[in-house]
Amino acid sequence: MKKYIFILLAATLGLSSCSPFQVRSDYADTASFTSYKTYKLRVDDLKLNDIDKDRVLNELSKQLQSKGLSSGENPDLIINVKANHKKVTDINQSSPYGMYGWGGGFGWGIGMNRTWSSNYNEGAVIVDMIEAKSNKLVWQGIGSGISVDSPKSKQKQIPQIMAEIMANYPPNMKK
Predict the structure, then answer these.
(1) Comparing C-alpha atoms, which of 111, 126, 129 is closest to residue 23?
(2) What is the DSSP track for 113-155?
(3) Nearest 5 degrees, angle CA 161-CA 55-CA 143?
């Protein structure tokens, strides 16, 4: 039985590390995360189209509520959400050298070197949690790697990246 649990655990860890996103977070050591119960979303800097904005905000609200927070007008936390994107160029190259065989499988050959590039836009989402009383940043989560150029990809990736960002909240504070 222990063998099967180990295999299941290994498979789960293996699958979870295959994320296409880069996610990181940081937090203030002095913050009292257990005391935060309410939040209010602030989207002044969220420069997305209405469809993507709804996707981000709906998923973020869902994640916050799953963490025990509720929306309120007199909040403990102000949640500021930002999004950006950058143009990425991938350059790939093939090697012109290799072994080619005649007869017994040995010999050398020379091929043609090929270089090609691809351009695409990669998006990122930043979630800032600001303590309402002190107006200080207490937690920040950043996720990047969203395929901005594909509407179908965004539809699938935005909920995934928001879940991965919020998986780091509340932080596992070890003192």
Answers:
(1) 126
(2) -EEEEEEEEEEEEEEEEEETTTTEEEEEEEEEEEETT-HHHHH
(3) 25
Q: Which amino acid is at 174?
A: K
**53 φ, ψ (degrees, to nearest 5):** -60, -45
Q: What is the pLDDT of residues 30-72, one digit of tens each?
A: 999 999 999 999 887 777 888 999 999 999 999 999 999 999 9
Helix (H, G, I), strand (E, B) or coil at 27: strand
Q: Which of 60, 65, 81 lies closest to 166 in space, CA to CA?
A: 60
* pLDDT of 150: 80
CB contact at 8 A, 126 and 162 = no
Q: What angle do CA 18, 153, 47 make, to 5 degrees?
A: 110
Chain centre distance of CA 100: 44
CA distances, 168 to each of 14, 165, 171 (Å): 18, 6, 6
Residue type at position 19: S
pLDDT in tens, 90-110: 677 776 555 554 555 555 555
Residue with tokens 């905000």: 57
